């Protein structure tokens, strides 16, 4: 009889914990007007054709256990709104290149942007966009366009 009561109490505690966890961490209720506001962040409208700023080339050696295994050269362009922003980015280009090289070294070391010996281009683009937003701020650059990528083994 004692075991049955303990079993029922344990079962009630587990059910209570499950319900409490669902209420605390479960899906949040949406208001009727908030559905579209969360899905599409507001961006300022573009006034004219996009302007592109070239950055690079950046050369990043991939270090192995004892030596450099390969060299990666990346050239990118940043899509911005107008010439004023382009001039601001050109003034910040040394900071950008430094941040890009640091992000690429970190991404390569953690295996985020390279799969074995092959460079993962979508992950590289995401990493470069995150770094651009950290250096220049959000909504300054609309897109990071990878112009060229070259991987060569180091002999």
Characterise this structure.
This protein is of the alpha+beta class and 155 residues long. It has helices spanning 2-25, 35-39, 83-91, 93-110, 121-136; strands at 51-63, 68-80, 114-115, 118-119, 143-153. A three-stranded antiparallel sheet has the order 1-2-5. Strands 3-4 form a two-stranded antiparallel sheet. Helix 4 (93-110) crosses helix 5.
Computed CA radius of gyration, to the nearest angstrom: 25 Å
Number of strands: 5
Label the structural class. alpha+beta
What ranges have pLDDT less than 50 throughout 5 or more consecutive residues? none
Percent of residues in beta strands: 25-35%
Gross morphology = flat
Topology pattern, helix = H, strand = E: HHEEHHEEHE
Portion of residues within helices: 40-55%
Largest sheet: 3 strands, antiparallel
SS field, number of helical segments: 5
Major sheet: order of its strands? Answer: 1-2-5
Return the average pLDDT rounded to an integer. Answer: 79
Distance between the termini: 77 Å
């Amino acid at each position: 009889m004692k075991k049955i009561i303990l079993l029922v109490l344990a079962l009630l505690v587990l059910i209570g914990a499950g319900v409490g966890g669902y209420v605390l961490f479960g899906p949040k209720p949406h208001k009727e007007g908030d559905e579209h506001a969360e899905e599409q962040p507001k961006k300022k409208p573009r006034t004219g054709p996009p302007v592109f700023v070239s950055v690079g080339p950046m050369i990043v050696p991939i270090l192995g256990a004892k030596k450099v295994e390969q060299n990666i050269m990346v050239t990118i362009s940043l899509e911005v709104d107008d010439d004023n922003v382009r001039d601001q980015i050109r003034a910040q280009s040394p900071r950008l290149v430094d941040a890009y090289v640091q992000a690429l070294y970190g991404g390569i070391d953690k295996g985020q942007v390279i799969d074995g010996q092959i460079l993962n281009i979508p992950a590289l683009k995401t990493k470069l966009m995150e770094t651009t937003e950290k250096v220049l701020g959000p909504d300054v650059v609309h897109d990071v366009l990878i112009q060229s990528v070259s991987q060569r083994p180091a002999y």
